[in-house]
From TrEMBL:
PROSITE patterns: ABC_TRANSPORTER_1 (PS00211), ABC_TRANSPORTER_2 (PS50893). Signal peptide: none annotated. Gene3D superfamilies: 2.40.50.100, P-loop containing nucleotide triphosphate hydrolases. The lineage of its organism: Bacteria, Pseudomonadati, Pseudomonadota, Betaproteobacteria, Burkholderiales. GO terms for biological process: putrescine transport. Residues 9-239 form the ABC transporter domain. Keywords: ATP-binding, Cell membrane, Membrane, Nucleotide-binding, Transport. One of its GO terms (cellular component) is ATP-binding cassette (ABC) transporter complex. Pfam families: ABC_tran, TOBE_2. This is Spermidine/putrescine ABC transporter ATPase subunit. GO terms for molecular function: ATP binding; ATP hydrolysis activity; transmembrane transporter activity. It comes from the Bacteria.
């Protein structure tokens, strides 16, 4: 028997219009109990608007919100029992870490001994047990954000809404806090709904990712599934690097002909969508050869090296292929720094090969 998935919160046909501008267009999304769901999309795609509607700070122009089947669309924010963490920490500067976290409980009239016990426990969860007496200005940015997370979790919300909570931190601190967030999520078991425009962060943290573009929900699935099978070129390119070839023609069986220079015949799996397609391959699935590869069932195209960039643990080659469209295509591929192609001149031929099952046909 399959696992029964419990939907904790359902947004049905949510729209938000500001005058004639459509910030959200008919978005339906279900949040599953206990998951780490990330809303990912470019700036202005509607992620924060949806989070604010779920929190109750913004009214939708259309649609409704159901929590465990109960309509909460018009319920005020303070009655929703959702925690919120923003990019700015908004801590009280004159209060200690302990009092900042205890504040939410004092407002809810939790008695002093229960308050002490709950604040101590949640400060331990976020790793700040030894800092409870400090003021916010005595903490690093990452520690202040952990206070904000503790404050949002201490009243045991059913759902934690996090809007770009790591974006003000430097790269190292950000990566540390990503690991912390995953651990905290696992430890407390609360449902997390997280907004970011950082693709790697979304892939690393989430149990599911919802991709937004221009106010529409384009795809929602596990990180692995979206990465391997994006529904269109926008999603594929937004979620990681992708080499894309224009298509000349396509046969029913997934065999396609590329380009007008020697016309390589390639095979691909289709990821659905109608209309014009492109052939897309993730760079890590491509192999770079300095001699024609031994004939196999792999796809093979020829090209020349345009540029090479040394990154220490790898070298990125930019390769112009003779297939794609009339001017050819530029392909980026990473190889070990000692790859034999490192010594080749710019006109020397190279070959790229990849397994057909790793090329996908995407709606352009
Ligand atoms: N109060 C408002 N009045 C008019 N337009 C608004 C208002 N709030 C948001 N918008 C517009 O709605 C669109 C979606 O905004 P939103 O903040 O949800 O995007 P986002 O995906 O969270 O972007 P970012 O990553 O930059 O925060 C934007 O074009 C924004 O300018």
């Amino acid at each position: 028997m399959g696992t029964l998935i419990k939907n904790q919160l359902c947004a049905e046909g949510i729209a938000k219009r500001y005058g004639s501008f459509v910030a959200l267009d008919d978005v339906s999304i279900s949040v599953r109990a206990g998951e780490f769901l990330t809303l990912l999309g470019p700036s202005g795609s509607g992620k924060t608007t949806l989070l604010m509607i779920l929190a109750g700070f913004v009214d939708p122009s259309a649609g409704r919100l159901l929590e465990d089947g109960v309509d909460i669309t018009r319920r005020p924010p303070e009655k929703r029992n959702f925690g919120m963490v923003f990019q700015g920490y908004a801590l009280f500067p004159h209060m200690s870490v302990f009092d900042n976290v205890a504040f939410a409980l004092r407002v809810r009239k939790v008695d002093a001994s229960a308050r002490r016990e709950r604040v101590t426990r949640i400060l331990d969860v976020v790793g700040l047990g030894a800092h409870s007496h400090k003021r916010p200005h005595q903490l690093s940015g990452g520690q202040q954000q952990r206070v904000a997370i503790a404050r949002a979790l201490v009243f045991e919300p059913e759902l934690l809404l996090l809007d770009e909570p790591l974006s003000a931190l430097d790269k190292n601190m950000r990566e540390q806090l990503q690991v912390e967030l995953r651990r905290i999520h696992r430890q407390v078991g609360t449902t997390f709904m997280f907004v970011t425009h950082d693709q790697e962060e979304a892939l690393a943290l989430s149990t599911r990712i919802a991709i937004f573009d221009k106010g529409e929900l384009v795809q929602i699935d596990t990180p692995e599934q979206i990465y391997a099978c994006p529904v269109n070129r926008f999603v594929g390119e937004f979620l990681g690097k992708m080499n894309v070839f224009a298509l000349d023609s396509q046969r029913e069986d997934g065999e396609i002909t590329l380009g007008n220079c020697g016309a390589a015949v390639l095979r691909a799996k289709s990821c659905g969508g109608c209309g014009p397609k492109v052939l897309a391959v993730r760079p890590e699935h491509m192999k770079l050869h300095v001699r024609p590869p031994i004939p196999s069932t792999d796809n093979v195209v020829m090209g020349t090296i345009v540029e090479r960039m040394f990154h220490g643990s790898r070298t990125t080659f930019s390769i112009r292929t003779s297939v794609g469209n009339s001017t050819g295509c530029n392909v980026l591929i990473d190889a070990p720094p000692d790859h034999p192609a490192r010594t080749l001149g710019s006109t020397a031929p190279v070959w790229l090969s990849w397994c057909p099952s790793n090329s996908i046909l995407l709606a352009a």
